[in-house]
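dumping this here so i dont lose it
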């Protein structure tokens, strides 16, 4: 394995750990300024700032942790499939974009992410 791949693995492990703390400032440091986030449930973000704003809004409703189920590392990239473990922090009376369901405060659920 090239040295750069092992660096990517270490940094990605640190990112997952940071994300799972729910501290936007902590995990946000891993995003490049031009980072864009693409998910089918909403329009893509344009940069790190808009991505963090999106997460900040979503994290007011849910606490999520990433549980990777498959990882592929390149010299400068990572592909991941994961299970997102979520808990509703408040009653959510709108359909959650990735499940189409509403949730009561304290309700826990899991959904896939790639």
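and the seq i came up w/
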């Amino acid at each position: 394995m090239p040295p750069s791949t092992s660096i990517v693995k270490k940094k990605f492990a640190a990112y997952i750990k940071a994300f799972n703390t729910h501290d936007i400032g902590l995990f946000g440091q891993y995003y490049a300024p031009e980072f864009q986030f693409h998910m089918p449930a909403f329009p893509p973000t344009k940069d790190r700032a808009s991505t963090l704003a999106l997460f900040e809004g979503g994290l007011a409703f849910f606490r999520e942790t990433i549980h990777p189920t498959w990882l592929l590392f390149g010299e400068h990239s990572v592909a991941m499939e994961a299970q997102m473990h979520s808990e509703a922090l408040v009653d959510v009376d709108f359909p959650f974009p990735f499940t189409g369901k509403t949730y009561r405060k304290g309700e826990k659920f899991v959904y896939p992410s790639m």
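DSSP finds three helices and three strands in the chain.
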